[in-house]
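Long-time lurker. I teach an intro course on protein structure, and each term I like to show students one example going from raw sequence to a predicted 3D structure in token notation. This year I'd like something fresh instead of my usual example. Would anyone be willing to generate the tokens for the chain below so I can use it in lecture? Attribution to the forum is fine with me.
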Amino acid sequence: MGGNSLRAHVIVLGNSKGGTGKSTTAMHIAAGLLYRGFPVGTIDLDAEQGTLSRYIENRAGFASRRGTALPLPLHLTVAPGGADEEMRFTAALAELAASCRFVVIDTPAGESTLSRLGHSFADTLLTPLNDSFVDLDVLGLVDAETLKVRRPSRYSAMVWEIRKERARRDRGSIDWVVMRNRLAHLDARNKRAIADVLSALAPRIGFRLAPGLSERVIFRELFLLGLTLLDLREEATGVKLSLSHIAARRELSEMLDTIGLAKLSVRKAAAAAEGA
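-- Reply from a regular --
Happy to contribute to a lecture. Here you go:
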């Protein structure tokens, strides 16, 4: 299945390291696009954790219990393993792409065959990154004395290979966006050093930077309810909006705008109409 035969824009949340907020970011991106009026599909490739799937189950349960209308994506899961792994994934993607403007794919940590396959269909690859040198190691190996990047990491090399594979398969390209998640609010020396390293690394391995989501307790609380920041309306959810919530919403809006997904969808729809 060629990428340019899909009607949807495919967004993949990818990082070989766990605990970076991939599933939380995936759910918020899906909700952000749903609230902007786009039909959205989601695929969970992380069968062992299944965090995105549980998030969506919690969301449907909350809406049912409260009698509240919450926008929901069309959701599918693809378990790893078996000779038909690729066929099951491409079938799920084709099913969602036929009716959705966007498909958001959550991938597991590590570099499994299924995760690599999911990466290869990305139009936009989003890599959430915790603001630490431990997580930065996923992108490049940094010299402890000079803070210069010695060489790209294994994950960066994998993305480079997948980009070539994608170009060979359907002449498609992958827009790689790295997001600094769980940023501390204090302008610490470590925070500035990481920003400098990422700015130097971006042109070298071909990604661009986007603002992520700060470390906030609210994200852990919202998961159990299946809610996102965009759902917080006291009359509908019973959750009182705080100044922290408002600031987090602003971060989410800025993230979506920087990534440019809404604009991409408009361009893709226009291109599809011309080719019809």
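Some talking points for your students: The beta strands are 9-13, 40-44, 74-77, 102-106, 124-130, 140-142, 149-152, 175-181, 208-211. The domain at 3-268 is CATH 3.40.50.300 (Rossmann fold).
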